[in-house]
Write a structure and sequence with these properties.
With 170 residues, the protein is an alpha/beta fold. Helices cover 26% and strands 21% of the residues. It starts with a helix and ends with a strand.
Length: 170
């Protein structure tokens, strides 16, 4: 019997050997947004959607999720929700000056989900009115104290109250 360290070294050395061949363009890991795009936006077809995002929500080509959804065929992006540090991730004080973004030739309202307290970290029922789904696409830093995970949990609660879907792009 091999000592534990030797067994691990053998597994690492030989575990990847075999007939698997990586073919460029065929073996890819897709983000949730990339998988949604690859499906032709199937999960969101015919729906009015809002998106909770910031500067980290991007596809493999670097396009922001809000821009991708605004131009997605069969999807109507109705609103954008920005978490702590704002839509651009600049600071707690960052505000889109006009309260809108111009995407796909339309003005899309931006709602802040960070006003300095836990009660402002969730979308309101008025903001969710008329939506069929909310998409959540924010990269998390993996720290328990960070607000993005809490924002997602509260958005899930509010989406349930509103009777709409919450789609998490992971």
């Amino acid at each position: 019997m091999l000592p534990r360290a030797a067994a691990l070294a053998a597994l690492l050395a030989f575990g990847g050997c075999g007939r698997h061949r990586i073919v460029p363009g065929q073996d890819r890991v897709l983000s949730g947004l990339d998988a949604l795009e690859a499906s032709g936006f199937k999960a969101l077809k015919g729906k009015r959607v809002g998106v909770i995002t910031n500067h980290t929500g991007r596809n493999r080509d670097g396009r922001p999720v809000a821009e991708v959804l605004a131009s997605a065929p069969g999807v109507e992006l109705v609103s954008v929700f920005s978490p702590e540090h704002g839509f651009a991730g600049a600071s707690e004080e960052f505000v889109v000056q006009s309260g809108t973004l111009r995407l796909a030739g339309r003005e899309i309202p931006v709602h802040s989900l960070y006003g300095g307290g836990i009660h402002t970290m969730r979308p309101t029922q008025d903001q969710l009115a008329g939506l069929d789904a909310v998409v959540f696409d924010i990269q998390d830093i993996g720290a328990r104290f960070y607000t993005y995970l809490a924002t997602m949990g509260m958005a899930l609660e509010e989406a349930q109250k509103a009777g709409i879907e919450l789609v998490v792009l992971d």
